[in-house]
């Protein structure tokens, strides 16, 4: 009997291989081949800025848009940068073996047909402690990794994980398993105020406090025994804007009680903005100077919002606080660093001199991550 399904898949794969390579140099359409190297992972959410990125500071560009300019393949591959698609899978179908294998097949075909190099899993749904879904998710990642590594040499699969294990934001995933079956984990070391249980602490504060970020990494490497060489430290290139219900002499900004996954207070009370937006607020609208909170290492300032007539407090990271995180990644011998997201900077040709300098400074700060000597020995 003819297996029509395999035949169909086979024909599809032929079509993809002979598809139109957008690059003058056809070798740029092959998946990137590199030896083992450190990672700098950038998440792309806009189709407009890719020509302006600093490709010396990127090794993997994760595409979070539904499509991209095919010329990006030529530029990225010529600069030894991998392209990975952000991927999500319906949690309700985690136990459906048929749906899983169809989805995995579709992802591999998508990577092939677009001359890209891999998949980045961004599942952020909650999975209850002890649920079989945690194993099924690991299984899904394994199925994809197995197939894509066979069919696309040089391809990579990464998984985005919370700032710490085991159950941050109700995400009780099998972190050890995910590390084992993927090429690396992208640790999202931000949104640390997503669950605040003490209502006395329902105040604006740092998005990515350095001591807790370090503790989260320690949890992954010590408690869960995940090799540091499997971890990429993801930092925020975005800021939080909180409306203050009240603001005292110590700059304590009380915020509205907005619950999240079982906690009565969360950073959902704030609004996320791009780095460049908050820098502009600091230059134009701030009513205080830029301050550093010595307890969390976060940058903050107040401004008067003309829209609602209220005082707001901004919390953010900037090159001064980011290099401390990049140094942490170096010190812990992590696989790399990365950011959410790369389009938070001002790349427009009409950008002000200050905004343009901010963009340069943010890219330059990434140079701080480096491979330590003992490691290259
Ligand atoms: C399992 O997935 C297949 C393929 O997507 C679908 O046709 C089927 O309805 C799913 N089964 C259930 C119980 O959802
Ligand atoms: C680290 O893991 C332990 C054991 O699971 C847990 O009790 C602790 O809260 C975790 N620490 C952090 C900072 O998440
Ligand atoms: C401000 O901080 C000082 C020193 O920590 C403390 O003594 C004072 O009570 C604080 N004021 C308010 C309004 O919280
Ligand atoms: C943090 O510490 C520095 C140096 O000790 C100090 O100048 C600064 O005022 C402190 N920041 C705040 C917000 O207290
Ligand atoms: C910041 O100041 C500018 C110039 O006064 C104003 O146009 C803008 O609306 C202000 N932004 C906010 C968010 O209040
Ligand atoms: C630059 O131009 C863009 C699009 O033309 C516009 O949206 C933006 O506001 C401009 N920025 C400045 C700083 O003038």
Automatic annotation (TrEMBL):
InterPro entries: Chitinase_II/V-like_cat, Chitinase_insertion_sf, GH, GH18_Domain-Containing, Glyco_hydro18_cat
Keyword field: Glycoprotein, Glycosidase, Hydrolase, Lysosome, Signal
Subcellular location(s) per record: Lysosome
Gene Ontology CC terms: extracellular space; lysosome
Alphabetical list of Gene3D superfamilies matching this protein: 3.10.50.10, Glycosidases (3.20.20.80)
BP GO annotations: oligosaccharide catabolic process
Listed Pfam families: Glyco_hydro_18
Alphabetized SMART domains for the sequence: Glyco_18 (SM00636)
Entry annotated with the keyword Glycoprotein: yes
Residue span, GH18 domain: 1-373
Main localization category: other
Cleavable signal peptide: 1-19
Top-level division of the source organism's lineage: Eukaryota
GO molecular function: chitin binding; hydrolase activity, acting on glycosyl bonds
Function: Involved in the degradation of asparagine-linked glycoproteins. Hydrolyze of N-acetyl-beta-D-glucosamine (1-4)N-acetylglucosamine chitobiose core from the reducing end of the bond, it requires prior cleavage by glycosylasparaginase.
Assigned protein family: Belongs to the glycosyl hydrolase 18 family.
Name under which the protein is recorded: Di-N-acetylchitobiase
The organism of origin for this protein: Adineta ricciae (Rotifer)
């Amino acid at each position: 009997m003819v297996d029509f399904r395999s035949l169909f898949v086979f024909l599809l794969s032929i079509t993809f291989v002979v598809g139109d390579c957008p690059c003058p140099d056809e070798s740029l359409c092959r998946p990137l081949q590199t030896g083992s190297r450190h990672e700098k992972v950038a998440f792309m959410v806009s189709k407009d800025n890719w020509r302006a990125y600093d490709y010396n500071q990127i090794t993997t560009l994760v595409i979070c848009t539904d499509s991209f300019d095919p010329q990006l393949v030529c530029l990225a591959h010529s600069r030894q940068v991998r392209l990975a698609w952000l991927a999500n899978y319906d949690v309700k179908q985690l136990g459906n073996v048929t749906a899983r294998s169809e989805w995995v097949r579709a992802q591999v075909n998508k990577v092939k047909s677009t001359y890209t190099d891999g998949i980045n899993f961004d599942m952020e749904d909650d999975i209850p402690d002890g649920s079989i879904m945690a194993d099924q998710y690991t299984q899904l990642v394994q199925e994809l990794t197995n197939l894509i590594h066979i069919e696309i040499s040089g391809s990579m699969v990464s998984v985005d994980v919370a700032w710490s294990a085991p159950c941050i934001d109700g995400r009780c995933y099998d972190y050890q398993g995910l590390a084992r079956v993927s090429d690396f984990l992208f640790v999202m070391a931000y949104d640390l105020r997503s669950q605040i249980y003490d209502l006395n602490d329902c105040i604006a504060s740092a998005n990515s406090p350095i001591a807790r970020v370090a503790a989260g990494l320690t949890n992954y490497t010590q408690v869960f025994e995940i090799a540091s060489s499997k971890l990429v430290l993801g930092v925020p290139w975005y800021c939080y804007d909180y409306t203050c219900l009240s603001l005292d002499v110590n700059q304590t900004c009380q915020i509205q009680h907005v619950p999240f996954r079982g906690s009565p207070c969360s950073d959902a009370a704030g609004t996320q903005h791009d780095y460049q937006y908050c820098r502009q607020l600091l230059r134009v609208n701030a009513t205080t100077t830029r301050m550093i909170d010595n307890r969390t290492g976060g940058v903050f300032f107040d401004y008067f919002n003309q829209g609602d007539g209220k005082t707001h407090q901004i919390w953010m990271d900037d090159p001064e606080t980011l290099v401390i995180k990049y140094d942490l990644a170096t010190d812990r011998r992590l696989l790399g660093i990365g950011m959410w997201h790369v389009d938070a900077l001002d790349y427009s040709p009409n950008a002000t001199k200050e905004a343009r300098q901010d963009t340069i400074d943010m890219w330059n700060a990434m140079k701080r991550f480096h491979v330590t000597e003992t490691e290259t020995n």
